[in-house]
UniProtKB/TrEMBL annotation:
Record NCBIfam families: PRK10669.1
Span of domain RCK N-terminal: 425-541
Molecular function per GO: antiporter activity
Keyword terms: Antiport, Ion transport, Membrane, Transmembrane, Transmembrane helix, Transport
InterPro entries reported in the protein's UniProt record: Cation/H_exchanger_TM, Na+/solute_symporter_sf, NAD(P)-bd_dom_sf, RCK_N
Subcellular location: Membrane
Membrane-spanning parts: 6-26, 56-74, 86-110, 116-136, 148-172, 192-211, 231-248, 310-329, 341-361, 373-393
An example Gene Ontology biological process: potassium ion transport
Signal peptide coordinates: none
Taxonomy of the source species: Bacteria, Pseudomonadati, Pseudomonadota, Gammaproteobacteria, Lysobacterales
Protein name, per record: Cation:proton antiport protein
PANTHER family in the cross-refs: CATION_PROTON ANTIPORTER YBAL-RELATED, SODIUM/HYDROGEN EXCHANGER FAMILY/TRKA DOMAIN PROTEIN
Primary subcellular site in the record, as a coarse category: membrane
Family label: Belongs to the monovalent cation:proton antiporter 2 (CPA2) transporter (TC 2.A.37) family.
Length: 572
């Protein structure tokens, strides 16, 4: 049996190098995306040494696109978008139109086809959701008005790009690319192609709303009832991939739109969170392969052959986009500090830009050298964005905590409304608001205990806050997140999350911050119990053991066994 297959080589070498370079990027306080893209360059055809199979990489990247869009749909919150709908819709669409127009002007100036300019402008106009969320979480701005505006803005951009991905094949011939729908470049046939495309998309959406909204939750409920975690995870992935494939096969709709709708429908069901958590590992793995595949398409020679064009692309992303965003946010009446931080947080491009650029090349609208310019601009913007944001955050940090002096229509009086009050003390920290943590927090509340929850999942954060519990959003492994819960004045901490390794590291850090705090944790094996105790927990509850004790107590309370309670054990 041969072991040196192209697929295994691509996955093994690609993921291995992506891990090493992603870890290095993390250590350098950069986005891991930088490492993943550099890994693709290393294994790509434009650098010496190992060269992975590009066709296989492209196929794997399609799976990555499906799962990325599935994740976007799973976390799509119409309610949060509506809170900032005015600035998000007007701001995002205005910036897309203006940057796309700028791309068209640049193409005209350099005597390039109109389609090249439009594709270039579209790719440069949108920000990376992955990079944005990482930045906002690091600086604890997810619950700030800055975070809500930026997230709403990027969600609208994502939705606009989903629409663009649907329409581009129909418009390919008009943009100077390859005809994929039978349309020619005249306006009548292009209009007909667009009508046909909208009709297919409409039919797909109607089917998903009428059938998918009922069938998918029903199917998940039945599979969840089997009690098999692997079957549930397999069902989630089958739904994501199956809907995407069915959308393409039956309605000629892009994989991206199909998987996005599958995620949206799962988000509305009661199993949405379980689906998100169970599919996350595989989704992350294929997302990494997607970025590796994108890196493989990049020719580093463009940095030497076209330095001025690369610099110009970078400046459009960082300066022009930031200035336009700042101007729009200020026009809505927000303070200078908020406008600056929203602007710099969105001054980068990422995953959707790669998807658009790849589609442009496949449709023969975008030449390879322009594609390389987009990738170069993305790499540089992702590398420099954390440093730029850090610089402006330090300059405007004090203004964010000051009382607002502007009269913006959506400006809340309390950007820190969800922060733990400074006078909080003698409280209990509950890490995790899942099935165990939510019940525990509720019981403690009923007994008059002051509770502070730490939770990273958006929907669970909202649920905890609706229950009147002060909640810190984020991962407890992050020290800023832990510090926000004011552990130095807490009496007790309970780790209700099922991830013992992560809990152990957080317990050790918590113990260093407050040596006198009592720490309890949840475990699922004797090994996890030992791990938690070794890292500073005062007690670890083994769920299965406690369940057995509880069932034993209930059995002994029933009439047939009530008299056995006082009998000594055999051999005693």
């Amino acid at each position: 049996m041969p072991h040196n297959t192209d697929l295994i080589s691509l996955i093994a070498v690609g993921l291995g190098i992506a891990f090493l370079l992603g870890l290095l990027a993390q250590k350098l306080r950069l986005s891991p995306l930088v490492g993943y893209l550099l890994a693709g360059i290393v294994v790509g055809p434009y650098t010496p040494g190992f060269s992975a199979d590009q066709d296989l990489a492209n196929q794997l990247s399609e799976i990555g696109v499906m799962l990325l869009m599935f994740g976007v749909g799973l976390h799509f919150s119409l309610k949060e978008l509506m809170e900032v709908r005015a600035i998000a819709f007007i701001g995002a669409i205005s910036r897309i139109v203006l940057i796309t127009a700028l791309g068209w002007l640049l193409a005209w100036f350099f005597h390039l086809p109109d389609g090249v300019g439009i594709m270039l402008g579209l790719a440069l106009s949108i920000a990376s959701t992955v990079v944005l969320l990482r930045t906002l979480e690091e600086y604890r701005l997810l619950d700030n008005k800055i975070g809500r505006i930026a997230i709403g803005w990027v969600v609208v951009e994502d939705l606009a790009m989903v629409l663009a991905l649907v329409l581009l094949p129909a418009l390919a011939s008009a943009l100077g690319g390859q005809d994929t729908t039978g349309a020619t470049a005249n306006s009548g046939s292009v209009g007909n192609a667009m009508l046909v495309t909208f009709g297919k998309v409409g039919a797909f959406i109607a089917m998903m709303l009428l059938v998918g909204r009922r069938v998918i939750p029903w199917l998940l409920e039945r599979v969840a009832g089997t009690g098999s975690r692997e079957l549930f995870t397999l069902c989630v992935l089958a739904v994501a991939m199956g809907v995407a494939y069915g959308a393409a096969a039956m309605f000629d709709v892009s994989f991206a739109l199909g998987s996005f709708f599958a995620g949206m429908l799962l988000h509305e069901s009661e199993f949405g969170q379980k689906a998100a958590s169970d599919s996350l590992p595989l989704r992350d793995a294929f997302a990494v392969l997607f970025f590796v595949a994108v890196g493989m398409l990049f020719d580093p020679a463009v940095l030497i052959e076209q330095p001025l064009q690369v610099l110009g692309t970078f400046l459009i992303i960082v300066l022009v986009k930031a200035w336009l965003t700042y101007f729009i946010v200020r026009r809505f009446g927000y303070s200078k500090s908020k406008a600056v931080l929203v602007a710099v947080s969105l001054a980068q491009i990422g995953e959707f830009s790669f998807i658009l650029a790849g589609l442009g090349v496949s449709l023969k609208i975008l030449p390879q050298d322009t594609h390389d310019l987009i990738l170069a601009g993305a790499l540089l913007s992702i590398i420099f964005n954390p440093f730029i944001f850090s610089f402006f955050y330090r300059r405007h940090k004090d203004a964010l905590t000051a009382k607002p002096i502007d009269n913006a229509p959506l400006q809340p009086d309390g950007d820190g409304a969800y922060r733990v009050p400074e006078d909080t003390g003698d409280h209990t920290i509950v890490v995790g608001y899942g099935r165990v943590g939510s019940h525990l927090a509720g019981l403690l509340q009923q007994q008059g205990v002051t509770v502070v929850v730490i939770e990273e999942d958006d929907d669970r954060v909202r649920a905890a806050r609706l229950a009147g519990i002060v909640t810190v959003r984020g991962n407890t492994a992050s020290e800023p997140v832990l510090l926000e819960a004011r552990p130095e004045t807490a009496q007790l901490a309970v780790f209700a999350i099922p991830r013992a390794l992560e809990a152990g590291e957080a317990i050790a850090r918590l113990r260093a911050l407050n040596p006198s705090i009592t720490v309890l944790a949840r475990a699922h094996s004797e090994g996890e119990v030992r791990h938690l105790l070794q890292h500073g927990a005062d007690g670890a509850v083994l769920a299965e053991r406690e369940l057995a004790h509880s069932l034993n107590e209930m059995i002994m309370a029933t009439p047939p066994y009530r008299g056995l309670r006082s009998k000594p054990a055999a051999g005693g």
